[in-house]
Amino acid sequence: MIAYRTKRLANGLTVVVNRDRQSKLAAVNILYRVGARNERPDRTGFAHLFEHLMFRGTRRIPNFDLPVQMAAGDNNAFTNNDYTDFYITLPKDNIETALWLESDRMEGLDITSEKLETEKRVVIEEFRQRYLNQPYGDQQMLLRALAYKVHPYRWSTIGLTPDHIAAASLDEVRRFYRDHYHPGNAILSLSADIDEERMLDLAERYFGQIAPRTVTEEPIAQEPPQREARREEVERDVPATAISIAYHMGDRLSPDFYTADLVSDLLAGGDSGRLYNRLVKERRLLASVNAYITGDRDPGLFVFTGQLLPETTPEQAEEALLGEMEELCRTPAGDYETEKVKNKFEANTLFGELNVMNKAMNLGFYEMLGDLALINAEVDRYRSVTADDIIDFSCRTFRAENSSTLIYKARS
C-alpha cells in the first residue's frame, strides 16, 4: 500500500507526494502529458526530440547534469506514445536541487538554433541506427501502420520519418515547448523520507511562481473499429523470417486490461509460458516467441510475435499461433496456471514498492491516467480475473476481422 497526498497548485500543476520512511534517497519525477499521440502527422518525433532538448540547459542553468552530479544524484528520461517522464534520484537532503532544476527548465528552456541542430542530428542518427539500419528495426513501425489508420499510435515515438525532424523549424519547436511543457500539463510526484506537508510546501515554493499557460489542444482522432483482417508481407535482409499478429483491445483503464495482461503472461511469461513450451520446445516451429500488450492510454494492441526456424513456413507459424488463441477461447485455463501468473504479478508489485523511484514514477503515471487510487488496487483487479473472463476476452479479441498480420520475410 502506497500512502500519498495530492495538491493542485494555482497554475495547474498537480503534485503527488509520498513519505518513504525506509529510504535515504529522494525521487523527483515530473511527467508531461505529451507523447507521440500529441504530434501532427506531418511533424512526428517532436516529443522524443524534446526528451533530448530538455537536457540542453536553460537561460539560467546552461549545464543541467552538473548540478545533479554535484548533489550526488542521477537523472534520466523516457518518452512513449502517451507521455514524457523526467526523473532524478538523489540524497533526500538535496531534494531542493532537483526541484530547482525541474522548475527552471519548465519555463526557461534555452532553445537556440545551434542546440536544435545538434539534437536534430542526434535524433536522426538514432532513427537510422535503431530503426532503418538495424535488423528488424522497422518491424514494429510497419505493424503499427498496419493496425492503426487514424489514431496517432500509427507511428512510433521516434516518428514516421527522420525527414520530419530534419525539417523542423526553430519556431515550430519553440511552439511545441510552449504548448506542452507548462504546469497545467505536468504532474510532479515526490517520494522521500520527508514530511508530506513539507514536500507540498517545497513544490509550491519552486513551481508556484511559474505562470499558467492557456493552450487549446487539438482533439485526438480515435481509431474506428476494425472490420476486416489486414495483411502485409515485406522482404528484408534479416537472418530469419518473423511473423507478427496484432489485435485491437481496450485502453489502460478498461476492465479488459487485466485479463489481457494475465493472458499475455499465461502465453509468454518466460520459459514456463505456453507459447515457448509448445511452439519452441515441443513442436520446434519457432526460434523465439512472445505475446505482449501495449497498455496504452487509448485503446491499444495485443501482439503476438515469433521468429521462424528455417524449415518452418509462415503458414505453419500462423496456424500454430492461431491454434493457441483458439484454445484460449475454448478451454478454461487451469487454476494452477493462472494462480502462478497472479502470484508473479503480486510479487513484482510488492517488490517494486520498495524502490523510491518506482513509487514516484507510478504515482505520476496513475495520476496521468486519471485514477490515482488504482495504484493500490491493481493486485486485487488481477486477482479477480476468472477463467470465464479469459475465455470471454479471447473470443471477443482474437477474431480474424480484428487482426493485422505482418510477415517479415528473410530474403533468400
Structural features, described:
The chain has 412 residues and is α+β, with helices and mostly antiparallel strands. 42% of the residues lie in helices and 19% in strands. It has 2 domains: 5-207, 2-Layer Sandwich (Cytochrome Bc1 Complex, Chain A, domain 1), CATH 3.30.830.10; 230-410, Cytochrome Bc1 Complex, Chain A, domain 1 (2-Layer Sandwich), CATH 3.30.830. It has helices at 46-53, 65-70, 95-107, 113-132, 139-147, 162-166, 170-180, 196-207, 256-268, 274-282, 314-330, 335-352, 356-369, 378-383, 387-397, and strands at residues 5-8, 14-19, 25-32, 74-79, 84-91, 186-192, 230-236, 242-248, 286-293, 301-308, 403-410. The chain has a 6-stranded mixed beta sheet, with helices on both faces. Strands 7-11-8-10-9 form a 5-stranded mixed beta sheet, with helices on both faces. Helix 11 packs across helix 15.
Give descriptors for this structure.
412 residues; alpha+beta; Cytochrome Bc1 Complex, Chain A, domain 1; 2 domains; six-stranded mixed β-sheet; five-stranded mixed β-sheet; 15 helices; 11 strands; 19% strand
Please report the number of helical segments: 15
- Name the CATH homologous superfamily of the largest domain: Metalloenzyme, LuxS/M16 peptidase-like
CATH architecture of the largest domain, by name, is 2-Layer Sandwich
Spatial strand sequence of the major β-sheet: 1-2-6-3-5-4
Mean pLDDT: 96
Q: What string, H for helix and E for strand, traces the elements in order?
A: EEEHHEEHHHHHEHEEHHEEHHHHHE
- CATH topology of the largest domain: the name is Cytochrome Bc1 Complex, Chain A, domain 1
- Provide the β-strand percentage band: 15-25%
Q: How many strands, which pairing sense, and closed or not: the largest β-sheet?
A: 6 strands, mixed
**End-to-end Cα distance:** 55 Å
Shape: globular
Helix percent reads 40-55%
Provide the low-confidence segments as ranges. none
Q: What structural class do you assign from the helix and strand content? A: alpha+beta
